[in-house]
Every structure is written in structure tokens, then in C-alpha cells.
Amino acid sequence: MCRLFGLHAGRSPVAATFWLLDAPDSLKVQSLREPDGTGIGTFTSHGRPRVDKQPIAAWEDRAFAREARRLESTTFLAHVRYASLGAHTYVNTHPFEQDGRLFAHNGAFADVAALDRRLEDVGTRALVQGQTDSERLFALITAETRGAAGDVGAGIAAAVTWLAENVPVLSLNCIITTATDLWAVRYPDTHELHVLEDRTRAPGRARRLHARSARISARAEDLGDHVLVATEPMTDDPRWRMIDPGTLLHVGSDLAVSCSFPFPDQPTRRLSVDDLSPAAAASQREGRPR
Fold first, then answer.
1. What pTM did the predictor assign?
2. pLDDT for 59-105, tens place per residue?
3. Are the C-beta atoms of 24 and 213 separated by less than 8 Å?
4. Which residue stretches belong to region Disordered (predicted)?
5. For the chain, first and last CA: distance in Å?
6. Is residue 290, in this structure, part of any structural domain at all?
7. How many domains does the chain have?
8. In whole angstroms, how far apart are CA 136 and each of 70, 129, 180, 198?
9. Does 27 map to a domain?
10. Cβ neighbours around 290 below 10 Å, total
11. Percent of the chain with pLDDT over 70
12. What pLDDT sits at residue 219?
């Protein structure tokens, strides 16, 4: 199953090396189970998006390790892909960029042709460069956000609601970032999505983190205050909590976290993993060591 990772560090750029490479269940470790592509999305000091991605697993991608150690940003968006639709190519690898925002998705839905017709109607079909359902979902969010005068939360709510009412849905879990904001969706309850709010750093003092799991122990220096959203808890920190199904979570530049519930209780036509083809079903199983 694809893995999502989003980090918001507030107004000051930070490095995310620990979470990408060194944590007990880092994105690099998760890529051992998800082999089809890895990408990191960040923003420059001028707020311009930057995406570094390859259609190969993070553990075998030297560029991933290099960029993970070098990049600094106020927000990070990373994705480890297990493909369910679309070839293993650069254009099908997350994150995607549209209108200066970055997007990654974990899940699946059916009747992509119906969504394509909708995208033609709202004028964003041309934004889709690859074959994935994920990039199409993003294009619908972009269209709805444009229609809401740039209100990303309203755009997400309208797009997810349209999909829930018009196509069979397995999972629409996703994260969107800008240089100043992060949004995350867990809908419906098919796949997990977790959040960690860490705002315990004393002013002027570095903070050490020692994370353990059943498989590994890791240390990091001076992570700073941050909010993390991830498909699975990446450390044994008891403050990780699962996001409730149907949540639209928002993190602003002050690291304040707000949650709303703008989506239908359930999709009109809900898929299960057993409804998918064998290859697609394999890509949607949890696959997390317990």
C-alpha cells in the first residue's frame, strides 16, 4: 500500500532527514515494502514548489538519500508508491504539482472515465500528464479550488464529495501542501492516517529525540516544533493518534491544527479490496509489520 508523509515545521525551514531516512519506520524503510516509486516535495525560500522523484524504491535510489539529507523546507510531502493504476514512470510518480501546490494520494477509486468527463467539464483535464487516478483526483481538487476563489479547503471538500457521490470509492486519503499550509484527508475509514503534533521545544534550546521500535533505534538532534501526518506511526511516540474517518485536517503556518468533517458519511458506492483486480488489491493491502 502506498505511504504518505507530510510535515509542517511552521515558519522556519527545517530538514526532514530523520523522518525520511533514520526513523524506526522511515520512508526509506517503508519503501522496502512499496517498490514502485518515491518522491519528495518541498518549497524554496521564495515559496516555489520543488519535486524530486523517481519511479524506483527509495531504498535503492541514491538521489532520494542525497535529497533527503540536503533539502530544507517549511513543509515536506513525501510518497512511497505501490502502483495500482499507471505504469512505473516519472509522470505517474507522486507528488504531483498543480497551481503551485503539491499533492500525494493513497487509495483507489473506480470509473476513471466518469472523472475524466467531469474534468473536461470543469477545464482541468489538460493538467493530467500521466495515467493515475491520483493525478485526476488532484485535477478535480484544483478545479474546485479555482471555483472557490483559491479556498483549498473548500476545493478539497467539493472534489471529495463529488467522487463520493459519483464513482465507486475505496480510499481518498491524500495530503496537499503549500509553503505555508498542509491539508490532509482521511476518507472513508479504509486506510489509516495518523498525526503527531510535537510543539514541546523550549525557546532557544535544541531538543534530542530518541525513537525506538521493535526493529531499530534512532537518534536525532534539534528537530524543532512540527506537525506530522503519515500513513503509519513512524516511531513509538505515544502522541501519535489516528485521524478520524471523514476528516479534513488543516495545519497553518502557526502549526495550529483544525479538523472539519465536510464529506458524506459514506461513499454512495463503496469498494472493498476484494472488489479490485488481484494486482490492484495487492497495492491496497496494509502490509505493515506488527
1. 0.82
2. 444 554 444 445 778 998 888 755 454 445 678 887 999 999 999 99
3. yes
4. 268-290
5. 15
6. no
7. 1
8. 31, 9, 24, 33
9. yes
10. 4
11. 69
12. 38
